[in-house]
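PT: before anyone asks, these are the final sequences, not the draft ones from last week. 591 residues across everything. Please model them as a single complex and drop the result in this thread when it's through.
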Amino acid sequence: MGVKKIIKTVFMLEILKGMSLTFRALFRRPVTRQYPKHKREPFAGFRGLHALTRRPDGDAVCVGCGLCAAICPSQCIKIYTSEGADHKKVVDRYEIEVLRCLYCGLCVEACPFKAVVMTDIYEYSSFTRQELYMTKDKLLANWDRFSEKRKKTYFGSFWKPLFTDFSGSDKQAKLQDVSKAKKHEDIYLEAGK
Amino acid sequence: MPIQKGKLRKKELTINMGPQHPATHGVLRLELDIDGETVVKCTPHVGYLHRGTEKLGENRTYLSALPLTDRLDYISSMANNVGYCLAVERLFGIEAPERAKFIRTMASEMSRISSHLLWLGTHALDIGAMTVFLYAFKEREWILDLFEMLTGARLTVTYPRIGGVKADVSEEFLSSLYKFTDEFPKRIEEYETLIDQNRIWLQRTKNIGIISAEEAVNWGLTGPMLRGSGVDYDLRKYCPYDAYDQVEFDVPLGKCGDTYDRYRCRMEEMLQSNRIIRQCIEKLPQGPIMSPDAPKLTLPPKERVQKDMEAMIQHFVLITKGPITAPDGEMYSAIEAPKGELGFYFISDGTGRPYRMRLRSPSFVHASILPKLCEGSLVADVIANIGTIDIVLGECDR
Ligand code: SF4
Ligand code: SF4
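LR: through. Structure below.
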């Protein structure tokens, strides 16, 4: 056994090295976010609680075509329609059982009228199942709560569109200045507004 | 009082490890017959997390079965999504455009890093090195944040689509990811400082759970489990899909196939993934992100749906009936997921739903080698062996 190896074994050099690393970590910036006090704003396009958008006259945009219910993999959307005046289709009930939802966002993609959307609301735990059975009124209320906060039109700025230009315009993102990029600590510790 | 000979009954003790044991990484149950501290017999029981993904896949259209694959290997859901989309694309004979391919490659490598980081953290924690766990999870959190930036969800991403990807990458995302790749090799060095030469780590991993190259091939192992034994087999290299043929990377190999070698393999793989991500960002081409030559398979843009009758009909048919242009026949397609070879096997009867969807999941195959690794070893090494095969029960039980 060489002298070096003896010194290594006796003085536990590799363990000391590891210890010194953990000691140095003591002086680094902490990366723990104190959750209920500090909340990070979700990134644009976050898939949270559902909402039904409103027409300018206040009613839901949804026409009851049922595409969202058809594509939903967990089949948690229920739509009941009836015939109204002028043979118009009336959406009586529109319900999403969010406890069974996968938050895949396929319903948003399927809806031709941008009537069902996903908001960035993620705090909605509850003690009862009824509260999380989203009826049409609750979904419209979600939309009010969300649009009030955002004060912007929803599509385009928040939900990233499925299709960008097929022609391959110059506007597509490519790697620019890395020095401007935020470090993880900065993203992570960003407090909510 | 002296014990009389012949009166004492000697028998192996049977204990259940799991399904709620914290070190079994999910709901794996091992039935161990132990003689003192030595395991005489080990019988793995799987199926506690069975959700019938294969059967569910037969009742959903090709489009809406995609989110089910997220829930297979839920810590690298991006790789599963890519595997599924690639399989369906091959079935229909279409190909994603270049830009989408690069984005997918980038995203699957991100999920490889996040999966290996979780493995490193929990494996080290099981063996008794708590610090690595905390450090590895810090970087994993970074990746998950990047996933949220890209896809809108942290774990179950549902990001690739048949014929491309859901949304384009943003500049903010690209530069943040590039920053990550700058930092990450330093972090790997940190983990190595903590455990690589640590004598306890070495004692717990060296010469534990040895699998020879021949055995590894015979048991059907893939991924780092196979490469740890020195068999050079990587689908990314030898059967390239997406953009893997346009980036440079090495396939790390182990020598003697013990737990330590597999640990080294996975650490190297993370560095190689880092390299692939960097190249993908640098080479990212401009262009469409959804295949333009497959209008029967991809949802038309919303603007067209509202104005164009044909697009509207196509939209309705695609969602309610699925892509009904599927050719008859069967096909198998596999990708290199973080755990090993993840294969999808479809039998199509020309309707919008697969007649049969079969999954070849690496975790199920790897779980089958546990008895071989554990029998004759100590109970404490069972934990090291469960850690080293890196199984996720969601994928194992499907
Ligand atoms: S997000 Fe997915 S699972 Fe949830 S309601 Fe929409 S389609 Fe169904
Ligand atoms: S939300 Fe959209 S897809 Fe669903 S029924 Fe209403 S209009 Fe149709």
